[in-house]
Amino acid sequence: MARYLTLDDVAVAGRRVLVRSDLNVPLADGTVTDDFRIQKSLPTISRLRDAGATVIVCSHLGRPKGLDPSLVMDPVAERMRELGAFPVRKLDAVIGPEIEAAVASAGPGDVLLLENTRFEAGETKNAPEVADGLAALCDVFVLDAFGSAHRAHASTVGVAERVQSAAGPLLVAEVEALSKLLEDPERPFTVVLGGAKVSDKLGVIRSLLPKVDMMLIGGGMCFTLLASEGFEIGSSLFEEDRVDEIGEMLSSVHGDKVSLPEDIVVADRFAADAESKTVPVDDIPDDWMGLDIGPLTAERFASVMHGSRSVFWNGPMGVFEWERFRAGTEHVARSLGDFKGFSVVGGGDSVAAMRLLGLEDTVSHLSTGGGAGLEMLEGKTLPGVAVLERWV
To answer: Would you call 47 a catalytic residue per the annotation?
Structure first.
């Protein structure tokens, strides 16, 4: 387990506290369409505010290359005000004399939100001038953005190298939940993986296979594994350059822990209104593509999960965005909702499924960070977490 300071270890009353939150939320027409990450960020901000700190919040939003008017933080600030029921002053830059003056004029309990950190060209390069500018704003830095902790950026690592830094409560909860799966999971331990590309998750598959009791794989990524097993997959998505590598992995000593679909919902084209039908996995028509796991597979996956004591789920079982191809993902989500053991759900679509069905409070931990969680489970060091250890 990483060792770092937490808010219990740091005096914040009367001090300027910079909080790196994860406010990278989807927008449509200038409105926040999913406020899950904002909701998760607010308890830390409220705690600091109530403790008498001047709170400066920063986050990236999207992946702009410089200033992008469609990705300003104003809609985020508005949603923070609505959900938090406290004033939030949105600033129009990230660093600089005007921002320093605004922070200096603020008092205990005030909350200021900086502009999108990625509007600064040096943010993603951990440029010294950006890290220095952020450090000039605060007496204490709090990293509470688990979803960005795997990036060595100025707002995650650079500033933490310059001022006293601590892990926020959300970050602590994320690390503890995933560490429990890595270090001492209750058994049987089952991992459920989905999503489009197996290449995105090869590292975590290799890392977790020796540690799990069962690995259930659906989503678009399953077709590369099925192809490596010799199945005809029609026009389904797959990564041909990974087939041999996957084949070697499945034939390894731990390969028999991997469970693949036995039936597939296929479509005649990639469209929400495509003609669809359910077929056995060995009977996918030549010109059809798999867009969801079938009901037999969904039921079997649910049975394995219910026979487990620990479950980690990342990635939808099909094209979750389209209702016709949502049943597999929904079945997994509802099965986790009934699960009585220790459960962690990570990844945007998996979390969205739990929230869509009103099941977010039924799992042990709903993670805000898909990529960071996978990297941690893969055994990688998260730079944003590692840098905090220097302050212990």
So the answer is: no
Beta bridge partners of 312: 191, 344
Whether 371 sits among the annotated catalytic residues: the reply is yes
Residue 1 belongs to a domain: no
Specify the CATH number for the domain of residue 257.
3.40.50.1260
Number of H helices and E strands in the chain, helices first, is 13, 17
Q: Give the chain's domain count.
A: 2
How do the pLDDT tens digits run along the chain, 392 residues long? 458 999 999 999 999 999 999 999 999 999 999 999 999 999 999 999 999 999 999 999 999 988 999 999 999 999 999 999 999 999 999 999 999 999 999 999 999 999 999 999 999 999 999 999 999 999 999 999 999 999 999 999 999 999 999 999 999 999 999 999 999 999 999 999 999 889 888 889 999 999 999 999 999 999 999 999 999 999 999 999 999 999 888 888 898 999 999 999 999 999 999 999 999 999 999 999 999 999 999 999 999 999 999 999 999 999 998 999 999 999 999 999 899 999 999 977 899 889 988 999 999 999 988 889 989 998 899 999 999 999 99
Whether 197 is catalytic is: yes
CB 143 within 8 A of CB 384: yes
Distance of CA 68 to the CA centre of its chain: 24
Catalytic residue selected from 37, 49, 118, 201: 37
- pTM score, two decimals? 0.92
Choose the catalytic residue: 89, 324, 371, 380: 371
Which helix H or strand E contains 132, and what residues bound it? helix 128-135
Residues 131 and 14 in one domain: yes
Q: Which domain range does residue 227 map to?
A: 187-340
* Active-site position among 218, 219, 348, 384: 348
Identify whether 370 is a catalytic site residue: no
Which residue among the candidates 15, 162, 197, 334 is catalytic per the annotation?
Answer: 197
- HSE-up of residue 220 (Cα within 13 Å, Cβ side): 17
